[in-house]
Amino acid sequence: MDFTLPDSALAVQRGVADICSRYDLDYWQRCESEKRWPEEVWAELAKGGWLGLAVPEEYGGGGQGLLELAVATETLSASGSAGGSAFTYVLTPGFGAMTLARHGSRWQRDELLPKLATGELETCFALTEPDAGSNALGITTFARRDGDEFVVNGQKIWITGVQRATWMLLVTRTVPAAEARPRTNGMTVFLVNVPEAVAAGRLSFQPIPKMGANTTPSNMVFIDDLRVPSANVVGEVDQGALVLWDILNPERVLLAASALGGAEVALRVAVQYAKEREVFGRPIGANQAISFPLAQVKAKIELARLMLYKAAWLFDRQLPCGTEANIAKLTASQAAWEAADHAFQTHGGMAYSLEYPVARLLADARIGKVAPVTEELLLNYLATQVLGLPRSF
């Protein structure tokens, strides 16, 4: 049993860290307060080839897997971006490149993967709906076949990155949930050209004001009689669940990686402050009420990282990884929240000052306990699917 990272992942770690070393906490604080995408970092990651890690080499990418993407995400997050970094690697390298590399048709791979590898094209993912929430199988956005096209109608919510995306991976029902047997049947994933759909008046979006991760807007999306060619189906019609699992498990892994990086930032900020801040003639870090909780956070970070890397390793070998991905997401998000909360407590009243990054780290960490799937649903999965306890519904 070997717990060392492969050379490919170590190279990613060094390369991304080198770029991140030029952008401090103040940079990420400005991006958040100005609600702007980290263009400078994005451009450097693209130039260095770090966005195309999951694109096969024949399409100009690095030919790497989810483990390398997770390491890149964690490294970027730990540099100071925290929760905001998740979208850098989730939206395009994760949702777009990795999905099309596994499930895309020949023309989809030939046309899109080379441009995804360079960052020329960006993608977003539209699954969640106002009335379905975390119940992915209960979505009602419907695609009706009309000759060689599908006509799509519906709404989506919390869709991040629509403003920058050229292509949206849109999850629909092609068989109503009530009629599908089993319920996982009758789902279809489409590629939608966002600028074209917006220009035609068939797709619109409205940003949602939110408390954190404002480097990328999240949106309500409205779809009205949108025509999508059948050639834009990703995978097979009615078999979109097979594609969906290969989107959702990497999403959990990458968001866990982002959470772990955020936990490292919060812990680093807390430890530094605890060393420097003196009260009653000694650094506050000498008090066990301060030091023990921070030590506990460190232990939880290391434990979560083991499961994160295991989940990514399994996915890359096309082995079942749902349980590991869910545990990684659960434990990493908990570690991130505890790290940010203890960093806040360590700073005391100064945590309220935006002179320090603690408030941003706290807001970013809180996201992970509810998105993209709530902590309660992760626990429900472990209780029913792993432990075999009775279902409550």
TrEMBL record:
SUPFAM superfamilies: Acyl-CoA dehydrogenase C-terminal domain-like, Acyl-CoA dehydrogenase NM domain-like
Residue intervals of the Acyl-CoA dehydrogenase/oxidase N-terminal domain: 10-120
Cofactor(s) needed for function: FAD
Domain Acyl-CoA dehydrogenase/oxidase C-terminal: 239-386
Domain Acyl-CoA oxidase/dehydrogenase middle: 124-225
GO-annotated molecular function: acyl-CoA dehydrogenase activity; flavin adenine dinucleotide binding
Any Pfam family hit: Acyl-CoA_dh_M
Family: Belongs to the acyl-CoA dehydrogenase family.
Protein name: Acyl-CoA dehydrogenase
Organism for this UniProt entry: Streptosporangium roseum (strain ATCC 12428 / DSM 43021 / JCM 3005 / KCTC 9067 / NCIMB 10171 / NRRL 2505 / NI 9100)
Source lineage: Bacteria, Bacillati, Actinomycetota, Actinomycetes, Streptosporangiales
